[in-house]
Write a structure and sequence with these properties.
By secondary structure, the chain is an all-alpha fold. Helix content is about 85%, strand content about 0%. The protein folds into 2 domains: about 210 residues, no CATH class; about 250 residues, no CATH class. It contains 19 helices and no strands.
């Protein structure tokens, strides 16, 4: 019983970790998109590709190896910490001297200085990754929530002040850098195990034996998503890249609040139960059903209400990103199937399988998106192709589950099918509201209300397991809070 309560409590704080920081970032971004032009966000997309690629390389999968290990000593932690820091420093030097090449490629001289400044975060994030992984391993999501939210608030305030004073792209760069620095300082304080001047070659090899495959998968994944941004920026325009990056960002951010909060709990939970496959599959089943019960309808609601959402929150100057927004919303509908299965593969040590699946998706996706961009020069077609590839591989990622986990793709699809059917029905019933040309806020309220009524009523009528399990979790968490208050 204690493990169940602990898991529910961890899930709640993991959700809070994602929700609070993302909510603050959402408010900040809503202000920034009204102040800054799409071109500025196009430049930021290019900068983030460089930084994210370097981040994955510098971290080397060592943080994930820390989570997966049965026991972690001070020597393990310190070895991973200093090794990540050294990798981050090397990659910063490469980015520093390679910046002019990317600036010449896009014929934007200002990129050189911008890349050199934002890449400082690579060194900081490489150290942060090991600290975060240790906290996730220990399921200390409350502390992580405080760290992330504090960083989001401080960096957001500075970013808005700079944007209002005409600093343009530098206001966004400042936001990224300040958030990384704040997180580093706070993690040094809250992480109970501290790095010491200790390094073990044996430990490093052991961590890399697991972590390099995870790192390689991350590199491939980042290359895939980053390559799409770079391709769009080159084959279309920087303005188009701004519309594309923001149209992608909002639905991905919204759905990732739940998916990441669950994923952060799943990996350590799976790692703890990997020797008891019955319990392992029970956790996997409940996680899949409950998360899909929420994520699937949320994705379809975002798809349906995209025009009104963008018009109301971002102003009409961003309406060009509506179709991109809708495609990325739709692509997230099967996201939890992908997340749950990948975390399960990671927990049982199948890092080679994790790598192969990501390599296949990146290879196929990059080729087809590149063809679409070169032939159409249109961000809407690029987003549509990405959506198709993402949904296809979300299903492909389930295929090895029967052999390795004893949980077939067919059974998993059957379990989330009610959420898909009810979401499609609710979406179809809500779409006609858009044709009445009502004020955006009225459209949002009507669509949201009708969608929730149809989906929840339908779930109740068919006794969908998702609504039963979700209600059970809410009741348990409410009772726990009441007990804590009484104490």
């Amino acid at each position: 019983m204690q493990k169940k309560v602990s898991l529910i409590n961890s899930l709640s704080w993991s959700f809070a970790e994602q929700m609070l920081a993302k909510l603050v970032s959402l408010v900040v971004q809503l202000v920034l998109v009204r102040i800054l032009d799409p071109e500025v966000f196009g430049v930021l997309a290019i900068l983030l590709v460089v930084m994210q690629f370097a981040d994955i390389l510098s971290q080397g999968g060592l943080g994930l190896a820390i989570i997966q290990r049965s026991n972690v000593s001070s020597k393990d932690f310190s070895t991973a910490f200093w090794l990540c820091g050294a990798l981050g420093l090397v990659l910063y030097i490469i980015a520093f001297f390679g910046a002019p090449l990317l600036a010449d490629f896009y014929d934007r001289p200002g990129l050189t200085e911008q890349i050199r400044v934002i890449s400082i975060c690579v060194v900081i994030n490489s150290l942060n990754s090991v600290q975060r992984s240790y906290m996730q391993r220990e399921m200390r999501f409350k502390a992580l929530s405080i760290v992330n939210t504090t960083g989001a608030i401080l960096s957001g305030i500075v970013s808005i002040i700079l944007a209002l004073n005409g600093f343009g792209i530098w206001s966004l760069i400042a936001q990224v850098c300040i958030q990384a620095v704040v997180a580093f300082v706070l993690l040094i304080i809250v992480v109970p195990i501290k790095p010491v001047p200790s390094f073990s070659i044996k430990v490093a090899r052991s961590l890399f034996s697991y972590g390099w495959k995870m790192s390689a998968a991350g590199i491939i994944n980042t290359f895939y998503y980053g390559a799409v941004d770079l391709i769009v920026g080159k084959t279309c325009t920087i303005d188009d890249l701004g519309y594309y990056s923001q149209g992608r960002k909002w639905p991905v951010t919204a759905t990732s609040i739940l998916s990441n909060s669950i994923a952060n709990v799943l990996f350590p939970a799976f790692s703890l139960t990997k020797d008891n496959m019955g319990e392992f599959r029970r956790i996997m089943h409940k996680s899949l059903v409950v998360s899909s019960f929420v994520v699937v309808p949320f994705s379809f609601l975002l798809f349906t209400s995209a025009p009104a959402l963008i018009s109301f929150f971002f102003t009409d100057k961003w309406l060009k990103s509506v179709w991109v927004f809708q495609m990325f919303s739709l692509s997230g509908s099967l996201g939890m199937m992908r997340v749950v299965n990948l975390r399960a593969y990671m927990a049982i040590g199948k890092s080679d399988l994790y790598l192969k699946l990501h390599a296949m998706e990146a290879g196929v996706g990059s080729i087809f998106v590149l063809i679409v961009c070169l032939t159409t020069h249109n961000i809407n077609y690029a987003a549509t192709m990405y959506c198709f590839i993402n949904l296809l591989f979300s299903l492909c990622f389930l295929l090895p589950a029967k052999r390795h986990l004893g949980y077939s793709a067919r059974n998993q699809i059957k379990e989330i099918a009610p959420a898909l059917y009810l979401s499609i029905l609710a979406s179809l019933l809500c779409c006609p509201i858009s044709y009445f040309k009502l004020p955006a806020i009225v459209t949002l309220v009507l669509q949201g209300s009708l969608f929730c009524i149809v989906y929840l009523l339908g779930s109740k009528i068919i006794s969908y397991e998702g609504i039963i399990l979700f209600g059970s979790i809410i009741k348990k968490q409410t009772h726990r809070i009441d007990r804590d208050r009484q104490k």
